[in-house]
Amino acid sequence: PMRYAWDMYPEYTRRMGRLARAITALVMHYVRLWDVLSTARVDYFIANSRFVAHRIWKYYRREATVIYPPVDTTYFMPEDRDEGYYLVVSRLTGYKRIDLAVAAFNHLGRPLRIIGDGPEFRPLQAMAGPNITFLGYQPRATVREHLARCRALIFPGVEDFGIVPVEAQAAGRPVIAYAAGGALETVVDGVTGLFFREQSPAALCATVEQLEQTTFDKQLIREHTRQFDAVFFAEQMQAFIAARVSERHGYVTTA
After folding, report:
1. Which among 5, 7, 68, 12 has a CA at the least distance from the CA of 38?
2. Exposed, middle or buried: residue 72 (CB in 10 Å: 0-12, 13-18, 19+)?
3. CA distances to 91, 101, 207, 225 from 200, in Å
4. What is the 3-state secondary structure (H, E, C) of 5-60?
5. What is the mean pLDDT of the chain?
6. DSSP for 103-115?
7. pLDDT value at position 6?
8. Looking at the whole model, is its pTM more than 0.90?
9. Tell me: the pLDDT tens digits for 1-34?
């Protein structure tokens, strides 16, 4: 289900003017009607997380099989070098809640690096203290280096799955994530990262301080990400398709 039409509609429209909100509300009413009607043409749903499978049931009343999306975990490797900074890698849009990270680290005074671009770049930069560095868009190789050398990844928003937290863990680094959405399925609290359970700067600050008193095993964190590797995704997709074809046509297919 389209997030901007359903569960995250308020987040996408909160900065609109009154007239824009009124027009959008009318348009979205018909978008939702069309969206629900179109599901009648769908034979099977595959969701990229249990979080999305629940949303499919909530809005469409249809069951979905969960197959996690492919992550190139082999591209990211742990390093012994820890440069002590915290890291955000994200598109800088409102619903990602990077403002929480900026506010929290303004208070903490710890070094924070933010990789990514988007409409919130300038407003976030304006509210940030000198301990926060905005790197803008960076190529994949640079992201890999920063993930391998950070203290931890900060993930303050709600995502359907969230590829970046898995990439950070593949690099052996813990994740501090808001306890909602796909992060609940990719981060193991106290083992591969820590959750904060209220979307507030205070809650995030407390969790950063907790992380600094917690010991993590890089290899254990990395091992956890194997279940999200692209190889497993391909196997699960092939098995799902073969099973559905067999059900429909009464014969067994092979990949």
Report:
1. 5
2. middle
3. 20, 9, 11, 28
4. CCCCHHHHHCCCCHHHHHHHHHHHHHHHHHHHHHHHHCCCEEECCHHHHHHHHHHH
5. 92
6. HHHHHH---EEEE
7. 67
8. no
9. 877 666 766 666 666 777 777 777 777 777 888 8
Question: CB under 8 Å to 238, separation ≥6 — which residues?
Answer: 255
Is residue 68 within 8 Å of residue 165, measured between CB atoms? no
**Distant-in-sequence, close-in-space partners of 161: CB < 8 Å, separation ≥ 6:** 48, 49, 51, 52, 68, 69, 181, 182, 185, 186
* Side chain identity at residue 181, one-letter code: G
The two structure tokens encoding residue 173 = 């680094």
Please report the sign of the dihedral spanned by the C-alpha atoms of residue 106, residue 189, residue 79, residue 163.
negative
Residue carrying the six token digits 């799902």: 240
Report the distance separating Cα 61 and Cα 164, nearest Å. Answer: 30
How many C-beta atoms lie closer than 10 Å to residue 110's C-beta? 17
Task: Answer for the pair 255, 237: CB distance below 8 angstroms, yes or no.
Answer: no
